[in-house]
Write a structure and sequence with these properties.
Distance between the termini: 35 Å
Structural class: alpha/beta
Radius of gyration: 19 Å
Largest sheet: 9 strands, mixed
Number of helices: 15
CATH class: Alpha Beta
Number of strands: 9
CATH topology: Rossmann fold
CATH architecture: 3-Layer(aba) Sandwich
Shape: globular
Strand content: 15-25%
């Protein structure tokens, strides 16, 4: 992806309250190829350049497109919003080797985006493992991270054992034990054998299940209810391009990231923070799970926690299952930390 290209598209309004819809019809989202130093990222950007910057960081199996609702809503409110396909995902470049997907490289990409925007600081919003990128950035360069919003996945304070060790020691029915699948050398190959079906199954696994759509075995047919056929096609095209191997390398680096985090052992997150979780997110629904315990610990591990918000009826894919609630909570948080 050479050069810097811009593709403009006008997005239709999602909201209907308080005049917001009219503002959003004029929001232009530009898809831009940005050199961030070590690599190049495909970035969806909207809002006035130079305005307070918000960076939206996805997890797995996701891309920057997962933030399409929030990009419009935040930009319409006057913020500069950027949502990258993180390295190895979607339309961004994919560096070679497992080590290239350690969290320190992902954090470097985030600060490369800030530099490209000529921004001294930003509010970082993370979903899934994107939260861990955001919180690590806040620990490593607190002067550049104004605040952190965490969706579905909490800050995991660096303790005596890695998250994977915690999961190995967890109960067999812990809903997050499937993260250990990434250590299976054949896992990416199995997903790649049926990318369309794999993406559907991964999305269904952690979303809120509508009544009447839960089969006796396996996953429901078709995309989950928060993705139209066209929206799911965008996901499929992105993963058809990237494959699954490089995206999974982010999670493969969990033990290495724990080693890198030695200097932050037992360190609190001191940036202003907010946490949101869906009531049907498996991690929240199992409070004794490994991730559930980290959620319960947030009042101690985050010194400036501005709120923990439970969104009823939503699962893990929070920004897509409950887009209006997430956008409204983010706007209130941004106003609070301005």
């Amino acid at each position: 992806m050479g050069g810097c290209t811009h593709v403009e598209r006008r997005q239709g309004a999602r909201y209907s309250r308080g005049g917001r819809a009219m503002a959003e019809t004029s929001v232009t989202v530009r898809i831009t190829d940005i050199d961030v130093g070590e690599t190049r990222l495909a970035v969806s950007a909207a809002g006035p350049p130079g305005a307070p910057l918000v960076v939206l960081l996805h997890g797995f199996p996701d891309i920057g497109y997962s933030w399409r609702h929030q990009i419009r809503g935040l930009a319409a409110a006057g913020y500069r919003v950027v949502a990258p396909d993180q390295r190895g995902h979607g339309w961004s470049q994919a560096p070679e080797g497992v080590e290239a997907y350690r969290v320190d490289h992902l954090v470097s990409d985030v600060f490369g985006l800030l530099d490209a925007e000529a921004a001294s600081e930003a509010v970082l919003v993370g979903h899934d493992w994107g939260t861990w990128v955001a919180t690590t950035a806040a620990l490593s360069s607190p002067d550049r991270v104004r605040a952190v919003a965490m969706l579905s996945t909490p800050y995991v304070q660096r303790g005596a054992t890695s998250l994977f060790d915690e999961l190995r020691a967890a109960a067999p029915d812990d809903p997050m034990r499937d993260l250990l699948d990434v250590l299976d050398p054949d896992y990416a190959t199995r997903l790649q054998a049926d990318p369309f079906g794999s993406l559907q199954a991964l999305q269904w696994r952690r979303c809120a299940r509508p009544s009447g759509r839960v089969p006796e075995s396996g996953e429901p047919a078709g995309p989950p209810p928060y993705l139209s056929a066209g929206e799911f096609e965008n996901y499929f095209r992105a993963y058809a391009k990237s494959g699954f191997a490089n995206p999974l390398r982010v999670l493969e680096n969990t033990p290495a990231n724990w080693q890198l985090g030695e200097r932050w052992k037992d360190t609190t997150l001191d940036a202003p923070a907010i946490f949101m979780v869906g009531s049907q997110d498996p991690a929240y629904a199992a409070p004794d799970s490994v991730i559930g315990r980290h959620i319960a610990s947030l009042t101690g591990t985050c010194t400036k926690l501005r709120g923990t918000h439970l969104i009823e009826g939503a699962g893990h894919w929070l920004q897509q299952e409950a887009p209006e609630q997430v956008t409204d909570l983010l706007l209130a948080f941004l106003k609070d930390v301005a």
